[in-house]
Design a protein that fits this description.
The chain is mainly α. Helix content is about 80%, strand content about 0%.
Length: about 280
């Protein structure tokens, strides 16, 4: 499992890259001004972890649950985000630009936010930027780049093999998730009802953060709202285990991973309805 899951994520990210165009990603990136990106830094890296700590305090979560929820709030940009955005009808290239930007910001922002939060609890927690950069490059940027390079040099072959790789990767990923959930069944049963509620509030709050900072571009706001809810649970679990100095944080991280799709689906349906209403009204 140690090597299977990273291999499957690499495969899925590479398949995403096969359907992306670098020029389109860069174009989406350039359309946003510096003030918008500054607002997105606040909505992506500051508001979600603050929500996690507030909810954990109000619900009197355990130390392990608080650490897990906080690390989920700290880590944006799920590796499978772009594929999910495409499936839900949102702007795939805009989502990809967000994912690349978030990945590049992670080694800068996460150490600062975690250090500041640790001070609140009388702890000195420093996460090396090089450790984060290594994770981001190997598990996100490298496979995405491989897929995009292959698509550049062999566009016809890429179009033919991309759906096959996507289906294969999805089947393998689903099988792995099923195995993991089966193995941790007893741990999930022991979770208090407040943990799923806290996870849902964090997901909803992450979406609302994009609305709170008032991004003017409607398409950017709608796309990035879903982007912000898709936190990087794999990175969150890794950071919790290595730096959280706690045990049994997996259940709360798993709860977020299991529940966030429902929030995303609900938002996607709402977005679809609003889009139809707007079209009908025009």
């Amino acid at each position: 499992m140690q090597y299977v899951l990273p291999s499957v994520v690499f495969l899925l990210m590479a398949s995403v890259g096969l359907s992306l165009k670098l020029t389109a990603v860069v174009a989406r990136w350039k359309r946003l001004d510096w003030l918008t990106w500054l607002r997105l830094v606040t909505a992506t890296f500051l508001i979600p972890p603050a929500i996690a700590l507030l909810v954990a305090h109000l619900f009197h979560l355990t130390r392990a649950e608080t650490a897990g929820l906080f690390m989920v709030g700290v880590a944006p940009g799920a590796p499978l985000l772009t594929r999910n955005m495409a499936r839900k009808g949102f702007d795939m290239h805009l989502a990809a630009s967000y994912q690349v930007w978030a990945a590049l910001m992670i080694p800068i922002m996460i150490p600062i936010v975690v250090l500041a939060a640790g001070k609140l609890y009388g702890r000195n927690i420093w996460i090396s930027p090089s450790t984060l950069l290594n994770q981001i490059v190997l598990k996100q940027l490298l496979p995405l780049s491989v897929g995009m390079v292959v698509a550049w040099f062999a566009p016809k072959a890429s179009q033919r093999f991309q759906p096959i790789l996507n289906v294969l990767g999805n089947l393998l990923f689903t099988a792995i998730v099923a195995v993991v959930l089966f193995k941790m069944g007893s741990a999930l049963k022991a979770v208090t009802p407040l943990v799923p509620v806290a996870a849902l509030l964090l997901a909803a709050g992450s979406m609302a953060a994009i609305l709170l900072v008032r991004v003017s571009d409607g398409l950017v706001q709608q796309t990035f709202a879903i982007c912000n809810a898709n936190r990087h649970v794999g990175l969150a679990l890794l950071l919790t285990n290595q730096y959280g100095q706690v045990q049994n944080a997996l259940p709360v991280v798993a709860c977020y991973a299991l529940l966030v799709p429902f929030i995303v689906i609900a938002y996607a349906k709402y977005y679809s309805v609003q889009k139809r209403i707007a079209v009908a009204g025009s």
